[in-house]
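Recall the central idea of this unit: under ordinary conditions, the amino acid sequence of a chain determines the structure it adopts. In this exercise we apply that idea directly, starting from the sequence alone.
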Amino acid sequence: MGNYVKPKKHLGQHFLEDMSIAQRIADSLTIHGGYKRVLEIGPGTGALTQFLLKKDYLTEVVEVDRESVQFLGMKYPDLKVYEENFLKMDFSKFNGEQIAVVGNFPYNISSQILFKVLDERDTVPEVVGMFQKEVAERIAEGPGSKVYGILSVLLQAYYDIEYLFTVDEDVFDPPPKVKSGVIRLIRNNVQQLDCDEKLFKTIIKATFNQRRKMVRSSIKGLLQGKVIESEFLTERPEQMSVADFVKLTNTVESALKEL
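Accordingly, the structure predicted from this sequence is:
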């Protein structure tokens, strides 16, 4: 392939140096639903890209760093590179075709990446990503865990999530100060929640923003003076499943309709 000058590392960038980890991430895609396209976010120097390109689906990448774009263009001339911000990406360009998302995600926008995935969930059947370990654990954990939170509930409403493996600091250049974790999200069969989805999100945010309080206290402001009866009023949000939040949402919605 020739010799190429690697892009300079910018603040916040950590290039994966252990190719066995890159191979393992690529192998973690299940092709759930039989999709044929994969979009890698932030490929950098192509550590993961090289293994994705060996698979029998179409790999494309999205990268904002100009030096990385030029490097990838020289190293993989046939690779489709979207030089843009994934968070602002218009998914209509995929014409409704299913496209999985994969990557060693930048820590500083990893949660935003998943909120974007949520918005595009009808197009994204699967996600395999590397995150800061505590973020990966938070996303994958179920009710009853201290790290279970807003993102956990919102993602678990539409995806089945599995924590796959932990990655040590020394496989990156430069090494980050924390360990990383790789998780897989596979789209479930829920097309629409059995409740008002906007109110569902509002209630989740209201309760987890005051996670030490009982649900009764944290949703009081939403009820506009109405009193409701619910089995969840004395719970704390980390004890509640997606199904529990759906039930609570319907109870609150019924009360608000009576106003």
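The two ends are 69 Å apart (CA to CA).
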